[in-house]
Fold this sequence. Notes:
With about 140 residues, the protein is mainly alpha-helical. It has 2 domains: about 5-55, Alpha-Beta Plaits, CATH 3.30.70; about 80-135. Helices cover about 55% and strands about 5% of the residues. The protein contains 5 helices and 4 strands; from the N terminus they run E-H-E-E-H-E-H-H-H. The strands form 2 sheets. A two-stranded antiparallel ribbon has the order 1-4. Strands 2-3 form a two-stranded antiparallel sheet. The structure holds iron/sulfur cluster (2 copies).
Amino acid sequence: MPWIDQEMCTACEICVDECPVGAIDIEDNGRATIVESDCIRCGRCHDACPQEAVRHDSERIPQEVAANLQWVSKLLDHFQSPSECVAFMARIGRHFNKQKKVIERTLAALNTVGEDTANDLDAAIRSTLESRERRAN
Ligand code: SF4
Ligand code: SF4
């Protein structure tokens, strides 16, 4: 999802007018911010911003990794003995591995879509879910 660099935003509100779903708010400080749950990822705000303040999602990877590590560190504080810590680290590793698999399988399913239309996507998703259900039964 695009995000707005508050330092670069000049509060011109062009992006607010461009957003087709009203997903951009103006904060008390006058700067724009994207409401993630409302954003449909159309990219219009990115193209419209004259300050290049609307940034690509990938630029946040380092911060997201840092946030994950901070979360793990906070949880690790609850375990004292070396064996507890080792067991916890194995569990948290499985948690992130599961997330990785979800993303990989989602991407694989998306790659099977021939035409980028809602119908094709819907059919591909249904087919993936049905075959998974068949395998489970
Ligand atoms: S268009 Fe760019 S500079 Fe203007 S309010 Fe939106 S993010 Fe800020
Ligand atoms: S990507 Fe589209 S929906 Fe999301 S905030 Fe920007 S203009 Fe709005």
